[in-house]
Write a structure and sequence with these properties.
heterotrimer, A mainly alpha (251), B alpha+beta (166), C mainly alpha (236), A: 251 residues, mainly alpha, 11 helices, globular, B: 166 residues, Rieske Iron-sulfur Protein, seven-stranded antiparallel β-sheet, four-stranded antiparallel β-sheet, elongated
Chain lengths: 251, 166, 236
């Protein structure tokens, strides 16, 4: 689709206006300086490095697994927020709302499918990413701490998936969580109090559903965002994405 | 030069006492912060543990003695309790498997209580006969009320030998 | 960056008059600065564009599948009736299979804790960072240790009837021992196996066991967690 010179002229004029320049301060990214500013001067993008090594851009370097995991998180957040518009975290509303979403709400079944699919995919992607980083030696100094942050992200991902599992309040959800919380009670000393805290009581009922909902929608996503930010930041600060060639040809 | 520096910062060379004012105030401030932090954590923990639970009542009436034939095992589903009656005694047992919390089923053909989750099997008295369950099924206190009804208290577990003699 | 760099520094007898420093770097354990290695490109547009493409391809794939594959919804939760079998989400089925063999405190608490701790400490172990192949150094001694470990593990697992863990352990152990018992083989896969490091073998063993446990828990377990053949089960 070719833009007509007229539209381009208009756009360039718009770009020159005071209003535009007060919002977008750097001007078009045509010089290396402005390209740097596109990253460095951007609130969210400045987590990324201004320059990357050409070798790390290839598909075979990382298979973009980390990016895939991150984008899945974004998809989950968007679909999750939309699903929240119809979901009441209460017994018996929850199950009714699931039926509502599937059979009544426009595109509800699609959004729910997308959310569940992305959740399964994210667990797979996170594991795959971890194994791939391990096998290419990406945990070696100076990237050790980032690996630990990654393990933290793995746990957050699993816990997010687990808390989300209860929310439909069907048999599958209820008994999966029953088994899981009973395992927690086997932790020595802290097990029973931990289970009580997690469930907000002795049984899996109203309190448990609400707590899992808050964990799933607020607490854990915030933790995930914080850890993701640290994870990206460390890549930049540790000298850029590590690829297989950086470490001895062993793995 | 070195002496000047020392007097500027107020540090005394190598002497253990007295503590200078800056260090003292710093320590006090640190302790105050620690107390505030611990206090905040404790307040949050106490807040998070509910004091009142809206859960179903744990004491229920189980009908009368005649409802339970001799040498029978009756599964009361909505309470997750077995009432077992032999010739001379009666007791109430939890139907929740002690392994991971699944609800067991009474199988009269094999004279066993079986758990569907991991294959644990219990006898009529609640003892583990097979499977990964670590403990036998707990027994609950059973009482006869004034009007002859059986009352089971799920919060009160009793030892296996304590039965209602009938 | 200090203790791990094993280098020796020597000074001349009079450093001020005759500065002479000799540095011996004995092991390649120093953090290597890689920033200069290879040509660099501006993140904008090169990285950003590629990430945008990944995002779009991902969305297309997700949407395509989500349009046809419906998420399950079973009956309303009933605290009085446990379905048979009662299975955890697939990523925990490996754990649930493990629970079948070992007491809950081992399979449910101890092993997951050890796994997480094991993962966390990987980068802090010199043996992982150095990356020497398993079959270097005193090969005979290493073979003895490896066979010993496999036997001890095997006996422990057999005592608990944990066949699902035993089989992949023995398989991986055999693969690991293969280069030792075929020292003259020049087959490519043997060469590949020979050059693998200790950490590679441990991780591969872990993945093999986890994969087997998860597959068994998903497809080979039916009511009462009894063994079923996947083709004789009804659709899960």
């Amino acid at each position: 689709m070719a833009t007509t010179p007229w539209i381009q002229q208009r756009f360039e004029k718009l770009r020159g206006t005071r209003v535009w320049r007060s919002v977008f301060r750097r001007g078009p990214a045509r010089t290396n300086r402005t390209r740097s500013l596109a990253i460095f001067g951007n609130l969210s993008l400045h987590l990324l490095p201004v320059k990357v090594r050409e070798k790390s851009l290839g598909v075979r370097a990382t298979y973009y697994l980390g990016s895939i995991a991150f984008f899945l998180f974004v998809v989950l957040s968007v679909t999750g927020i939309l699903l929240m518009l119809y979901y009441h975290p209460a017994v018996p509303d929850a199950y009714r709302d699931m039926k509502d979403l599937i059979y009544v709400v426009s595109n509800g079944v699609f959004l729910r499918n997308l959310h569940r699919l992305a959740a399964q995919a994210m667990v797979v992607a996170v594991f795959w990413h971890m194994f791939h980083v391990f096998y290419r030696g990406g945990y070696k100094p100076p990237h050790e701490f980032n690996w630990v942050v990654g393990v933290g992200l793995l746990l957050v991902t699993l816990f997010l998936s687990y808390t989300g599992y209860l929310l439909p309040w069907d048999q599958l959800a209820f008994w999966a969580i029953t088994v899981g919380t009973n395992i927690i009670s086997y932790v020595p000393v802290l097990g029973r109090p931990l289970r009580f805290l997690l469930l907000g009581g002795h049984i899996i009922g109203q309190n448990a559903l609400l707590r899992f909902y808050v964990l799933h929608c607020v607490i854990l996503p915030l933790a995930a965002v914080a850890l993701i930010a640290v994870h990206f930041w460390r890549i930049q600060k540790d000298g850029g994405l590590s690829i297989r060639d950086d470490h001895e040809r062993d793995e | 030069m070195a002496a000047e520096d020392q007097s500027k910062t107020g540090e005394k060379p190598e002497s253990k006492s007295p503590v200078n004012r800056r260090d003292f105030l710093s320590e006090i401030a640190g302790c105050a912060l620690a107390i505030a932090g611990i206090g905040a954590a404790v307040v949050t923990m106490e807040y998070s543990e509910p004091n009142v639970l809206f859960e179903p009542p744990t004491t229920f009436r189980a009908g009368s003695l005649d409802d339970y034939p001799v040498n029978s095992v009756t599964f009361i589903q909505d309470q997750q309790v077995y009432i077992v009656r032999t010739e001379k005694s009666l007791w109430a047992m939890s139907a929740v498997c002690t392994h991971l919390g699944c609800i067991t089923q009474w199988k009269p053909e094999s004279n066993q209580i079986a758990c569907p989750c991991h294959g644990s099997k219990f006898g009529r008295n609640g003892n583990v006969e097979a499977g990964p369950a670590p403990r036998s099924l707990p027994h609950f206190a059973v009482r006869l009320t004034a009007d002859g009804a059986l009352e089971v208290d799920k919060l009160e577990t009793v030892k296996e030998g304590e039965i209602l003699r009938v | 960056m200090s203790e791990t760099n094993k280098y020796v520094v020597g000074f001349g007898s009079d450093a001020a008059k005759d500065p002479r420093r000799i540095v011996f770097i004995t092991r390649k354990t120093s953090a290597k600065v890689k920033g200069e290695a290879g040509p660099q490109l501006m993140s904008y547009p090169h990285l950003i564009l590629r990430e945008a493409i990944v995002l779009q391809v991902l969305i297309i794939v997700l949407v395509a599948v989500a349009l046809f594959w419906d998420a399950p919804l079973e009956q309303l939760a009933n605290s009085l009736l446990t379905p048979n079998p009662a299975k955890a989400p697939w990523y925990f089925l490996g754990l649930q299979e493990l629970l079948h063999y070992f007491p809950p405190i081992v399979a449910g608490v101890l092993i997951p804790t050890l796994v997480v701790l094991g993962l966390v400490v990987i980068p802090y172990f010199k043996i992982n960072v150095q990356g020497e192949p398993l079959w270097s150094g005193n090969q005979q001694r290493r073979a003895q240790v490896l066979v010993g470990v496999v036997i001890v593990l095997g006996v422990l697992l057999a005592v608990y009837d944990a066949w699902t863990v035993l089989v992949p352990t023995v398989l991986v152990g055999t693969l690991a021992l293969l280069p030792y018992f075929t020292p003259s083989s020049s087959a490519r896969y043997v060469q590949f196996l020979r050059s693998r490091t200790v950490s590679w073998w441990v991780m591969t063993w872990f993945i093999a066991v986890a994969l087997t446990l998860t597959l068994v828990g998903t497809f080979f377990r039916g009511p009462g967690w009894s063994w079923v053949w996947p083709w004789s089960r009804h659709a899960s």
